[in-house]
Amino acid sequence: MSDESGLIERLKSNINKDAAFKELLVLYKERLYWHIRNMVKSHDDADDVLQNTFVKVYRNINGFKGDSKLFSWMYRIATNESLTFIGKKAKRLQITNEEVQQLAIDNLTSDVYFEGDDIQMKLQKAIATLPEKQQLVFNMKYFEDIKYKDMSEILETSEGALKASYHIATKKIEDYLRNH
Predict the structure, then answer these.
(1) What confidence score (pLDDT) does residue 112 get?
(2) In this protein, which residues make up the domain named RNA polymerase sigma-70 region (predicted)?
């Protein structure tokens, strides 16, 4: 987006803040929704986390330094909000984060917003077996086609480490799909 600096300026000014924020919503809402949805699985949960993400963006835009792209900064917030959401849900249900993921996948079959077939479901189950970081990297690369350079900015990890994580995740998923 070429006019990102203009949008950031308007977001930080009190004059056009709400109009600029609506523009921001239009630009990023869908991409952030799917990023969150890949992590929390359920449509309703993704909606809640998306709302929290935009509230945080709105409240903290003045603290945005411009060291990274606005998109990367928002993705980082969405990622952290999703992980926090999963952690809180796990604590509330007194189960592990992994079990929360498993539960979410089991519920996908009854989710009216899930349009996947058996293969999609099997892939989701395979992804759920990965450690959190590998899940994140796999989802961002496979489903969202985010470049390693941008991912590195969002997750604050080196491109090399991300490529290695993706490679390992892919192997584990292939093994899972072969054996289930």
Answers:
(1) 65
(2) 28-91
Residue with tokens 């994140």: 136
- HSE-up (13 A, CA, CB side) for residue 59: 7
pTM, two decimals, is 0.82
* Yes or no: domain 116-180 corresponds to CATH 3.30.1240.10: no
Task: Check if the beta carbon of residue 31 is closer than 8 Å to that of residue 143.
Answer: no
Q: Which residue has the tokens 């604050």?
A: 156
Domain 1-96: top CATH class: mainly alpha
Cα separation of the two ends of the chain: 43
pLDDT in tens, 67-76: 889 999 999 9
List, as one string, the DSSP characters of 100-136.
Answer: HHHHHHHHHTT-TT----HHHHHHHHHHHTS-HHHHH
